[in-house]
Amino acid sequence: MLSEDDLKYIDPFGKRLSLSDELTSLIELSKEKFRKTKSRRRNILVSGGIIIIFLLSVFSGWALKERNRAEILKTKALAEKYNLLASILPFTIRQKV
Predict the structure, then answer these.
(1) What pLDDT shows up at residue 37?
(2) What one-character-per-residue DSSP string does 64-78 give?
(3) Angle at CA 9, nearest 5°, toward 29 and 25?
(4) For the purposes of burial, counting CB atoms within 10 Å of the CB of 2, is it exposed (0-12), middle (13-18) or buried (19 or more)?
(5) CA 12, 18, 23: angle at the middle one, nearest 5?
(6) What is the tens place of the pLDDT at every residue in 44-57?
(7) Which end of the chain is more exposed for a tag (fewer CB within 10 A), N or C?
(8) CA 74, 75, 78 angle in degrees (round to 5)?
(9) What is the DSSP letter of 12?
(10) Residue 10: exposed, middle, or buried by beta-carbon count in 10 A (0-12, 13-18, 19+)?
(11) How far apart are CA 46 and CA 49, in angstroms?
(12) Both ends of the chain: CA-CA distance in Å?
């Protein structure tokens, strides 16, 4: 098999060269292997990018859900605090009088 550099070197002269069928088929086989390798590499990168975007989306959704849950718990805690203060207030007023 020819390397990528070999194919790049031969490519400009490809139409002007008169090669045997065996060499021509070797060049075509090498080109096809190079295309497949390049395509596989591109597919892996695209798939990796999609997976990263998906994972970040899932993490962001989880973080927003947790933030909303924390806000609800904060509101409940403040309501309980004010209810407790409201229930204690009449007793403190009576004791001062």
Answers:
(1) 94
(2) HHHHHHHHHHHHHHH
(3) 20
(4) middle
(5) 85
(6) 999 999 999 999 99
(7) C
(8) 85
(9) G
(10) middle
(11) 5
(12) 102
